[in-house]
User: Which sequence fits this backbone?
């Protein structure tokens, strides 16, 4: 079990300030959110020297990075010129930061099956251009008009079409609960064959609140129990760093017991 935190926890800060603040908190794995004009989108305006400075900051502090690709304008399910341009910039960033994985939403398409096929083909292209060590993970998203990747079955189909061990699933607990509240655990377990990690956040099943575990109504206990023997990455994607830390401690208590948590490090 590996613990990581998303810069979404400090979404109001410029991305470089968010990374610095999270490192100061002692985290050793950070998922960089590539969205937000005043947050992750700032990466696209950085030159090589600026990006290399961020990379050195990570290395000097023993920190590894993941990269959540942008959402707005990036549409692997129906790639266009804008999607290609965004990917070119993302590839440059991913290479310099030496990220462990890139994460993407599949996007939108009038036909789900057509969108899945397009997303799989675009993902193959991405993997062909990324460094060999970098994995690609797809995330489930909330229901929306023409959205592709709202169900785990759809994500599984894409991963199977990509057909490489370098591809997997990042299961977002909040999105899954919003879409499949009565069948939450059943839906989550469908991702297990290709599960790379989880976005851990809580809500009440209506909106994407990004709360800490226990502030919403997601039944995390059974899910954590089902994952007990699996080596997956837990990415805490809450709306504050404090909520991420509280959620991490909840997971550790469920896995290890209170005394182990008190003596543990991130």
Assistant:
């Amino acid at each position: 079990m590996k613990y990581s935190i998303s810069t979404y926890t400090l979404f109001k800060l410029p991305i470089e300030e968010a990374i610095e603040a999270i490192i100061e908190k002692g985290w050793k794995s950070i998922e960089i959110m590539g969205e937000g004009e005043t947050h992750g989108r700032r990466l696209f305006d950085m030159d090589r020297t600026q990006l290399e400075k961020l990379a050195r900051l990570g290395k000097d502090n023993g920190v590894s990075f993941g990269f959540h690709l942008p959402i707005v304008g990036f549409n692997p399910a129906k790639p266009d010129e804008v999607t290609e341009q965004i990917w070119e910039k993302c590839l440059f960033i991913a290479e310099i930061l030496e990220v462990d994985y890139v994460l993407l939403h599949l996007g939108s398409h009038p036909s789900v099956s057509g969108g899945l096929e397009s997303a799989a083909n675009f993902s193959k292209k991405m993997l062909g251009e990324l460094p060999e060590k970098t994995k690609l993970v797809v995330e489930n998203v909330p229901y929306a008009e023409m959205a592709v990747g709202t169900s785990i079955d759809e994500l599984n189909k894409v991963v199977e079409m990509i057909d490489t061990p370098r591809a997997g699933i990042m299961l977002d607990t909040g999105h899954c609960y919003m879409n499949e509240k009565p069948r939450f655990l059943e839906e989550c377990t469908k991702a297990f064959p290709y599960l790379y990690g989880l976005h851990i956040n809580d809500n009440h099943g209506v909106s994407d609140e990004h709360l800490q575990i226990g502030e919403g109504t997601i039944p995390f206990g059974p899910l954590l129990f089902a994952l007990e023997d699996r080596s997956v990455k837990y990415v805490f994607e809450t709306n504050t760093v404090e909520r991420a830390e509280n959620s991490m401690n909840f997971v550790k208590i469920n896995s290890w017991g209170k005394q182990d948590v008190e003596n543990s490090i991130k």
In short: The CA atoms of residues 49 and 225 lie 45 Å apart. The chain has one domain: 2-262. The domain at 2-262 is CATH 3.20.20.150 (TIM Barrel). Confidence is low (pLDDT under 50) at residues 256-266.
